[in-house]
Structure formats: C-alpha cells, structure tokens
C-alpha cells in the first residue's frame, strides 16, 4: 500500500471513500467476498465475475486490488486520471505511475487520450 499512497498521494479520506464505494458496488462487493471466502469451482451463475481475474485479485484493508494496484470504480476515475496526469511529462510517465498504483478496464487507452488531448490543447 505504501507505493500506492506515495505515487498517487492519496489521503486517508480518499481511501475511506474508495472502501465505501467498493462495498456499495454489487460486482466489486461480490469479488471482495469471493477473495475472502474462496471462489466457487464454477462461476456460470455470475458472468460478471471474470474467472481470469481471480488469480490476481486480493482484498487488503478493505480495498480491492489487482496485484498491487487499487481497483478504481468508474465513479472515481476522473479524479484519478487527473492526479496521474498532473505534474507528469507525457504518456510514458503517466502510464508508469498508473501501472504501479491503479487499475480499471481500458485505463491505458484512457491515459493515452488524456495526454494527447493535453498536448493538443497546449
């Protein structure tokens, strides 16, 4: 968790908000429950839960992680994207920080677009 808080400069309040949002989101809450209680042999009844992810998912201090990266819900991604881009020079640094700290589907493409749009606006 230290690398996440160092690289993103996240506050305790932000982590508390993320914990609460993860508990409220039905898919994330179910994934967290499965991480803690064990995954069923068959997940056909729950297609939203991708079995390919199960080897990478863990729960630590009430937060859902993919490897060592925080899983960020869609409702909280704009702030994280802005934080990743702020103060970093270009796509490589932005992606490098993201790859160490956060994850969500489509993150790399969204960061590419953010950096390209910022270059065009300058």
TrEMBL record:
State the source organism's domain of life. Eukaryota
Name the PANTHER family for this protein.
INTEGRASE CATALYTIC DOMAIN-CONTAINING PROTEIN, PROTEIN CBG26694
Please give the InterPro entries that the UniProt record associates with this protein. Answer: Retrovirus_Pol_polyprotein (IPR050951)
The protein in question is named Uncharacterized protein
